[in-house]
Amino acid sequence: MFAHIPALIVVIPLIGAPTCMLLRYRGWSWGVALVGTWTSFYLCWLLLQQVMVEGVVTYDLGGWAAPLGIEYRIDAANAFVLLIVSAIGSVIMPFAKESVRSEFGTSRVYLFYTAYMLCFCGLLGVTITGDAFNLFVFLEISSISSYVLIAMGKDRRALLAAYQYLVIGTIGATFIVIGIGLLYSVTGTLNMVDLAARIAERPPSRTLGAAFGFLVVGISLKLALFPLHLWLPNAYTYAPSMVSAFLAATATKVAAYVLLRFLFSIFNLDKIIGIIPIDAMLLILAVIAMFAGSIVAVFQNNLKRMLAYSSVAQIGYIVLGISLTNATGLTSSILHLFNHAVMKGGMFLALGCIVYRIGSVRLKDFAGIGQRMPWTTAAFIIGGLGLIGVPLTVGFVSKWYLVLGALERGWWPVGLLILLSSLIAVIYVWRVAEVCYFRPPPEGAEDIDEAPATMLVPTWILIGASVYFGINTDLTVGVAQRAAAVLIGGAG
Fold it and tell me: Which string of b and e fits 207-226 if b means at least 16 CB within 10 Å?
């Protein structure tokens, strides 16, 4: 059974989706999703330990050897991302039961968990596969189910947000499949390792250049890299609270991993930079995203929208690390995949707790909430300190390595820009803290309690992780450094 862990990681949630549909009683469908996500999390943890000890792990589906068959190939980079997706997906599940009941209702709730398990399965499949077309298939499974999950928000604008995401996501998927098709026309293979070897043997050509362009643009749409981020604010704002938390913590992280995989494992980035200044292009877009996302977040009164624009800025930090094209920069990007997941996931869950009690995410309705829901408010503010990059939080660790990577390249102005953009985050986090702690509750406001423990505990697990891994960095930094070495060309 241990030898089949790579397949089981994907198969278990894939089986869980139709099972949720068949077991239509809401408690049973939630139970299936809970067991499925936690089982996948446990298997991903075992797989990461195996990779760190033994190196690259491969699994041939159906006994068909690569490159003819579909291969699951796991190294330190995607093993780490698998752990991120499965951990977030499983921690959110206890939160989901009450949150989904209050925001979605109990009628046909099994459809919600069916879509959730499909999305969870798709994201894991994208991360684990070593076949380019199989990656596209799993990407579409996760995307289509994401559209459904977003549309299930109680605000009618959720339908418009889902439709907007569908249109832009479809364009991105089309670009990706065209890029994969062009690669296949040149190399005659879809296996990623085989693709890399055959591309390295060939001289630069227009077809390879077109494939690279289609893939980078398509993946950037899925990643929500500025200025291709227009789907993200509405999607995060109007989706159910647990969906916002799940997508913010996982979907863009998987897209960032796909970008890393194509840039560093399949294409020779050094050779590409000699033809196209992709590092400079990514650097410019990343810096604009860092400032534009944070500045727009400052002026938002809807806190879910504020966090959405904050995510645009955080994606900028991830892409900035990629643009540095050195080991330290890649380490910061990979590290920030995890760090942003726990920070932003915890903050969205904290908002979900407040929505559960007061039914609003408008900043003006948060007056005095610090005294009425102290644990939830503290969780939100601590997550915000991580976004700023305050020491003893994971956000500081990511930005520290990002600044070091910029200084290694001799780009000290970029290091200064990182610090300046972080200061903008102080403004929008302070706006929330000021309203929550220094404004009195409105007259006649009802007394409210904290959200149920099933919602509050998952929130604090993620926020606690953002502090714990900001102090004890051995695991996350060690894995990120190993993953960066793999991508650059070191041992698996």
Answer: ebeebbbbbbbbbbbbbbbb
User: What does the pLDDT read at residue 136?
Assistant: 92
Beta-bridge mates of residue 70? none
**In the structure encoding, which two tokens stand for residue 181, read together?**
């098709």
Torsion angle (degrees, nearest 10) of CA 31, 34, 39, 45 = -170
CB atoms within 10 A of CB 170: 15
3-state secondary structure of 301: coil
Separation CA 425–CA 431 (nearest Å) = 10
* Residues 49, 56: Cα–Cα separation, whole Å: 11
Other C-beta atoms within 10 Å of 183: how many?
28
Is the Cβ–Cβ distance between 109 and 135 less than 8 Å?
no
Tokens of 407: 């200084």
Mean pLDDT of the chain: 87
* Residues 221, 301 contacting (CB under 8 angstroms): no
How far apart are alpha carbons 253 and 455 in whole angstroms?
24
Nearest to 265 by CA among 479, 5, 78: 78
Strand partners, 57: 74
Lookup result for tokens 């000699």: 274
Q: Does the structure show a pLDDT above 80 at 168?
A: yes
pLDDT bracket for residue 445 (50, 70, 90):
low
489 or 364, which is more confident? Answer: 364
What sections of 156-240 are H helices per DSSP?
157-187, 192-201, 206-223, 232-238
Q: What is the pLDDT of residues 356-400, one digit of tens each?
A: 888 888 888 888 888 888 899 999 999 999 989 888 899 899 899
Length of the chain: 492
User: What is the predicted pLDDT for the residue at 491?
Assistant: 39
The pair of structure tokens assigned to 399 is 């930005």
362 forms beta bridges with 302
Q: Quick check: 150 and 119 in contact, CB under 8 A?
A: no
Residue 432's H or E segment, with its range, is: helix 412-438
Query: Is the pTM for the entire model greater than 0.85?
Result: yes
3-state SS, one letter per residue, for 25-66:
CHHHHHHHHHHHHHHHHHHHHHHHHHHHHHCCEEEEHHHCCC
Both structure tokens of 147:
């559209």
Residue 1 is predicted with a pLDDT of: 61
- Does residue 37 contact residue 3 with C-beta atoms inside 8 Å? no
Nearest 5°: the CA angle 101, 106, 108 is: 130
The model's pLDDT over 390-444, given as tens digits with 9 standing for 90+, comes to 888 998 998 999 999 889 888 888 889 989 988 998 998 998 898 888 888 776 6
